[in-house]
Structures are given as C-alpha cells and as structure tokens.
Write a structure and sequence with these properties.
two-stranded antiparallel ribbon; alpha/beta; five-stranded mixed β-sheet; binds zinc ion; Dna Topoisomerase Vi A Subunit, Chain: A, domain 2
Amino acid sequence: MLIGDLKPHSSSLLRYNPPMPAPQKMPSAFARLIEQLQTLPGVGSRSAHRIAFHLLKSPPEDVNRLAAALHDFKNDLKVCTECGNVTEADPCSICADDKRDPASILVVEQPTDIAALEQTGIYRGRYHVLLGRVALLDGIGPGELNVDRLIERVKRGNVREVILGTNPTLEGDGTALLLQEQLHELGVRVTRLARGLPTGTSLDGLSKAVLSDALQGRGEFGGRLER
Ligand code: ZN
C-alpha cells in the first residue's frame, strides 16, 4: 500500500469527533468543603483538594474532633479589647493582672509572640498585639492593624515606655518606624528590641535566651520616616 493511499482514510480519522463524556459533578458536600477551604489564607485549589481527600480517608472521629475544635475556637476565643491578645476572657489574663506594670507596653505582631516572650519570664509589663504588620504591597496599611487602640492606650496616660517588638524583618522594621513616628508625638519613650535578633526571623521561633537578651538590651528607637 502506498502512503498516498492512506491520506483520505487518515484525514477522515482526524475529522472523527467522539462524543465527549458528560463532566462528572462533584458531590455538593465535597464542593462546599473545597469552596470553604479556599477562603483560608494560603490555601489554593490544589491544597483544598488535598485536604478534602485527606479528610475523606480519615476516621469520622478525627474529622469530628477537627470540626469541634473549629467550633470551640470561634465560640470560646475572643480578642482582648484592651490589647488584642487572643483570650477566653475579656480583658485577657495579662491585662487583668494588677501585678503587671501598666506603664510599659510591648508591641508585637501576633499573639504567638506574647507566648514566646512570656517564656523568658523577665518581662512584667503589658502587651499590645497589632494582629499583623504593615505590608503595603499586600494592601495592609496601619489602618488594617490594631494601631488606633494602642494610640488610645498611650493617650490615656500612665504609659512610660512603649517597646516595639515587631519582627526583625523588612516589614516589621517598617511597621516599627511608622509606629515610632506616631508615638513620638505623644511624648512617650519608644524603644526597640535589641538588634542581636537574627534578621528575617519571627519572635515565636526564637529561643528563650535570644529573646531575653533582646528584651534586656533594647535601645531607644528614634528613627524618623523620610518623606
Ligand atoms: Zn489584654
């Protein structure tokens, strides 16, 4: 058979369009879970599917424990209206503790930073949680953070020192500078955790010893924003 003889036959094969199978629809409970998982930060379609299939294979009691933990998380935990810490009681146990010095406020990015600093056992003042850091590229400005409440606390008086304990990262330093500028106008002493902290890390990943040194070696923070 000559190759030329195949031509009409092969072109007719190319023209053959088998009927497409109807797309399989996901069960609605599965689709709903995927949709909800994807609303979480950092969870895209691929991760959402991986989590959903993992839960599908898990024993029901494990999945129920997770569901109960999510339920309790939202119902039992609140944000302390005074400092922004995550707490079961409002005000939180630190704000409610008369033995903690209300004249010293240590500003951190996240509640987990408080847990790390408390482990050092050397800080006896109060805290303020920003619930994030300024990241203009991600659209997070000072207005998105728990800053107004900090200014209010300082304005209320009796605050001697504000220690800026934002993480030693580019964004953490930028946040500290912005806060310093606002706090400076209120006439309060502003310090920054010592710069022995490794750059680019977060407080909750540091050892007790490093954090203790950073707290004890903190220095005046007098940077001004260039405008
Ligand atoms: Zn509190």
